[in-house]
Structure to design on (337 residues):
């Protein structure tokens, strides 16, 4: 009788072990850490992540996601990382405020066995994350600068063209890469005497700072064109141009980056010549799926960077470009089942 009981217990235990193995990892908890939800671009990133979570829930996956807003404060984001580590989340998805300042906190996540996925912006020490999902910002900025030159050529303005550059937050990969891309295209023309960079200012990806900086620049210089490392700064420049009694798009050509809704409207109104559409929705969407496949299947990408699409947006495609960057698409290289 005792032997029978032991056998039954063993069979039941084996059955429940098998069921547990088939059921997957149990509840999946994700922490999504955003640099600044005051920026519409990052709202789209959050929405893409939430869309992926909702899809997985519809497929029966027990998954939840908590969203943190760092408000562009690296100290706050470091604290948020530590909070997520303390909660023993299954994975951290992070849009870093700064490439280096948050790394000590991320090391605590790695030490706790929590995988990290960076999106839109990367960290300096790439060993701290599983994969980066985001734009090739150097190439995107080069495309923006080429669009600016195309507009200047068509404008008939005499050379040397007088150009203003507005840069983002120093130390963020997005700002540094876009600055590099701008200069890759513009610097050779400076050497040829075709353009003159009359001012280059840091406006920290903020509309209000760009407005203030541009007001000062316009008081001191004649300007033919402005290129900004994001649309918030481009829109601030447009406000300053209009405030000076000038016509954006005519007196001064403006090119931005991100294709946020206000900027797309400015492109349609011909106040902004072009903006660069990234794929923040896909960045968030793919980040969730990358975490899910890694947790469930121990999946690792073949490359440590999964690039997301970019599109140059002008008035010619302002009504159609969204289909290229905002529709859910399968994560490249992910398991097919």
């Amino acid at each position: 009788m005792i032997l029978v009981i032991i056998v039954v217990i063993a069979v039941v235990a084996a059955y429940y072990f098998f069921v547990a193995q088939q059921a997957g990892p149990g509840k999946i908890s994700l922490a999504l850490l955003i640099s600044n939800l005051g920026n519409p671009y990052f709202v789209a990133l959050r929405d893409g992540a939430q869309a992926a979570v909702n899809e997985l829930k519809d497929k029966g996956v027990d998954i939840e996601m908590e969203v943190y807003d760092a408000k562009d404060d690296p100290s706050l984001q470091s604290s948020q990382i530590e909070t997520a580590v303390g909660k023993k989340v299954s994975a951290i998805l992070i849009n870093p405020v700064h490439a280096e300042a948050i790394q000590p906190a991320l090391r605590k996540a790695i030490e706790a066995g929590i995988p990290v996925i960076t999106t839109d912006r990367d960290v300096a020490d790439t060993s701290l994350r599983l994969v980066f999902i985001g734009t090739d910002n150097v190439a995107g900025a080069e495309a923006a600068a080429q669009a600016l030159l195309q507009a200047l050529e068509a404008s008939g303005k005499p050379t040397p063209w007088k150009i203003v550059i507005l840069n983002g937050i120093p130390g963020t990969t997005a700002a540094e890469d876009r600055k590099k891309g701008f200069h890759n295209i513009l610097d050779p023309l400076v050497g040829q005497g075709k353009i003159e960079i009359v001012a280059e200012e840091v406006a920290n990806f903020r509309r209000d700072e760009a407005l203030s900086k541009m007001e000062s620049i316009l008081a001191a210089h004649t300007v033919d064109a402005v290129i900004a490392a994001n649309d918030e700064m481009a829109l601030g420049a447009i406000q300053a141009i209009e405030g000076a009694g000038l016509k954006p798009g005519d007196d001064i050509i403006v090119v931005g980056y991100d294709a946020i809704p206000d900027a797309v409207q400015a492109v349609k109104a011909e106040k902004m010549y072009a903006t660069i559409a990234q794929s923040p929705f896909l960045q968030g969407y793919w980040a969730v799926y990358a975490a899910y496949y890694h947790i469930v299947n121990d999946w690792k990408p073949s490359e440590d960077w999964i690039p997301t699409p970019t599109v140059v947006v002008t008035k010619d495609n302002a009504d159609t470009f969204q289909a290229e960057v905002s529709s859910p698409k399968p994560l490249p290289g992910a398991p097919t089942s």
